[in-house]
Amino acid sequence: MHSSGDFLSTPNLDYEAWRDVVRSICGRYTPGGIEPKTFFGRARVRSICGFRSVDLSSNAHCLERTHQDVRVDARDHYYAIFQMTGQSRIIQNDRTVELTVGDVALVDAARPVTYVSEKGGDQWWGSLQLPRRSLVSHLGLEPRCLSRRSGAAAARPLRQLLQDGVEDEQSMSVSANAYMRLAFYDLLGALFAPSDPEDVSLHTDKLFARICDIIKDRFADPDFGPCEVAVEAGISLRYLQKLFTVRNSTCSNFIYSVRLDHAVRLLERRSFLKTSQPISEIAYASGFGDYTNFHRKFRRRFGHTPGSHSGDHAEPGRISAAESASLAHDV
Questions:
Q1: What is the DSSP letter of 16?
Q2: What is the C-alpha separation between 252 and 247, in angstroms, rounded?
Q3: pLDDT of 281
Q4: Where would you tag: which of 180, 218, 267, 269 has the fewest CB atoms within 10 A of its CB?
Q5: Three-state secondary structure call for residue 247
Q6: Looking at the predicted structure, is the pLDDT value of residue 155 above 80?
Q7: Residues 62 and 105 sit within 8 Å (Cβ to Cβ)
């Protein structure tokens, strides 16, 4: 376990050493408002259940990350910032939040930010580094920064986990580690998910529309399924399925629906042009890996076979010998 005393007992660093350490673990930040020769600070990095945790303290009046810093190191994550001692002000996106002990703020490392010490005293911030894609996946939307939560019930256990987190992850099983990560994300969701239902609804509607567009672009790939949709959308599989569940469907059903709609268009084109294109070829072009599965799903949805729908020159419902053979196991 790592108590606050462990951090406060770490050696002080001078201006250059502290700045270099911080840049190596957090990106480019520069202390300001203090003469380098009078500067002192501490820095510690840990791993907590797979998250990078960073403790920083200094007596600088401000800590700045500029537009140029953002361009140079191209960091793409968030920080949950916990005020451990003192008081400070954080400025980002033309917004300002005041932090006192126990407060937590969410900061976007991909944007310029300035931390200002209110009284110029020694400040201690604890932080949790959160990969953008993972956080958005678990929250279900891009969180609003700069956000602050004060006195929220979820902030206390999260702060305690950060302050006393286990560094030796090998002492935990893989499954326990995964559950702990989910606990972190759930606590963050309780803190930073928007409370306005209209904001949530607007975002989820836009996200769902984008997911539908992804499926419509990729449905012809027979190996494209819900897992691939989630990866391309940048969300978790669990959240993807939730988006479809609230709409009384599943991602798999939607994919098959798009494939069958495409197959119908090809069958109608085949009938109109009076071509001899094999129906099995239409099945594969619509994203079905085998004809049997296509035939079964088509008949279940439309109530008749692909051959009868196409209006080919054979009697309605008749299929070729090759297609008949491929249906031998369709019972």
A1: H
A2: 13
A3: 93
A4: 269
A5: coil
A6: no
A7: no
